[in-house]
Structure formats: C-alpha cells, structure tokens
Amino acid sequence: MNYSKEFLDLLKSVTAKRPKTVIDHILQYGFITTEDLKNKYGYNHPPRAVRDVKEYGIPIEMYRVEGGDGRKIAAYRFGEFNPEIMHRISGRTALSKKIKEELISLHGAKCFIYNEIMDENVLQIDHRVPFEVGGDLVGEIETKYYMLLSPSANSLKSWACEKCANWNNQKNKEICLTCYWAYPENYSHIAMIPIRRLDIIWQGNEISVYEALKKQAENENTEIQDIVKKLLEIFVKNNSIIA
C-alpha cells in the first residue's frame, strides 16, 4: 500500500506504545485483528487500542475476517486520509502533556475515578466526554475537559462507554456530561443506567481497616462490599442524614 508522505509523517509522529503498536502492525501487514491485539500484543481490550490511534486523527476502518476458530472477528486498516484533519490534530502530544501537568498541579497525581495516588508516569489523560461522542478538543487547553485515570480505570471506562447506547446510537454529549465516567464527583447515571457507584482505595495505614472489614465479611460469610454498605447504612440512619 502506498501512503502519502504527509500521512506517513503523521504515523511516525505517534510515539505512545499502544497506538504505535497498532500503526506499525498495519504498516507491515496491511491490517490488524482483535486476535492479533489480544494474543500477540496482550491487549485485552482491542477497541481501546484502536481508539488510541483514531484520537491522533488517523483514520481507521473496521471490517470482518475469519478468526482462528472459524468465527468472524474484527479487523482494522487505515481509512481514507484527510490532510485537513492532520493539520487540526498536529500538536496533540504537546497539548496533552501540558494538560496532564496542569491537572496534576490542580488535583495531585491521582486517578479521578479511584482517588488513588499514583506515579504520574502511570496516569493516563483522557477526555471526560469520549472522543467519539464529544468530538476533538484540540486547541482547548481548559483542564475541565479532561481527567487523569489509572490504566485499570481507563480500561473500565472504555468498556462501559463502548457498551453504552449513547455511544453506539444517540451520541448526545449532554448525556455524557451527567455520567459517572465523565464526572464521578457529580453524576446522575452510569452509562445511562440509574445506579450509583463508590470506589474506595485503602492505602498505607488505612490497610489495617480494610483487613478488619475483610475478616468481618469472612466471619459473616458475605462480601466485603455488603459489610461496608451495612456500616454506611447504620451511619446514615444514626446521623439522620436521610430525612
């Protein structure tokens, strides 16, 4: 396949490991499958790896091929290149780095979902509203449009978003703005499901509290989540938090 110099320059500008892996494989073989991503490169969530490539303005199209077990699986190849998009996307890497530094300065090096303090090199910057719904924010340097996520939180968010009806059909930005995966500090639904979620991390000296809760759960032959819920219900009731 012959690609224009402009397109090849765009491909070479991507240095992040996951999207670069996808790009290099497609350049060598013409396409990459979900089996390649899982079995050869160890990516258990192939759509996320492909999405990383798209977010650099690189067109990717999906089609179906026969997998090793004879079933149809997804395969990805480069789509039609639009130079206009390339110019709009250029500078993304520098912009992302600047935003990440600003987010860390404002909130500390922690995951926005788990509130877990982490090495800043591990944290990943992500759009609060998924790129596929909200569109590109290149040029926007306001930190309110982005969040820092641990790799596991980023993977969970990707999985949840890609199963969401809004992602697949409506693509309504307003729905995303009230979702847990965009604003865990203030939301009304999780991927359009009316539920609430609380993720708690115990670190350092707090671990002894977790171990005590775990032991209590084992004694009652139940899950630690049920023990925590019960304790919270007692606290809420005793303090008349709910009218």
Q: Could you describe the 3D structure shown?
A:
The chain is mostly helical and 243 residues long. The chain folds into 3 domains: 82 residues, Arc Repressor Mutant, subunit A (Orthogonal Bundle); 87 residues, His-Me finger endonuclease fold, CATH 3.40.1800; 34 residues. The chain contains 12 helices and 5 strands. It has a 3-stranded antiparallel beta sheet with strand order 1-3-2. It has a two-stranded antiparallel ribbon with strand order 4-5. Helix 2 crosses helix 4 and helix 11 crosses helix 12. The chain is elongated and about 70 Å long. About 3% of the residues have low confidence.
* CATH class membership of the largest domain: Alpha Beta
Order of helices and strands: HHEHHEEHHEHEHHHHH
Total DSSP E strands = 5
What is the count of structural domains? 3
Q: What would CATH call the architecture of the largest domain?
A: 3-Layer(aba) Sandwich
Q: Uncertain segments of ≥5 residues (pLDDT<50)?
A: 88-94
Strand order of the largest sheet: 1-3-2
CATH topology term of the largest domain: His-Me finger endonuclease fold
Instruction: Provide the CATH superfamily of the largest domain.
Output: His-Me finger endonucleases
Q: What is the helix fraction of residues, given as a range? A: 40-55%
Q: What structural class results from the helix and strand content?
A: mainly alpha
- The termini sit apart by 67 Å
> What percent of residues are in strands?
5-15%
What is the mean pLDDT?
86
Q: How do you describe this structure in short?
A:
The chain is mainly alpha-helical and 243 residues long. The chain has helices at residues 5-12, 17-29, 34-40, 46-54, 83-89, 92-107, 131-134, 151-163, 165-170, 173-177, 207-219, 224-238, and strands at 32-33, 60-66, 72-78, 124-127, 146-149.
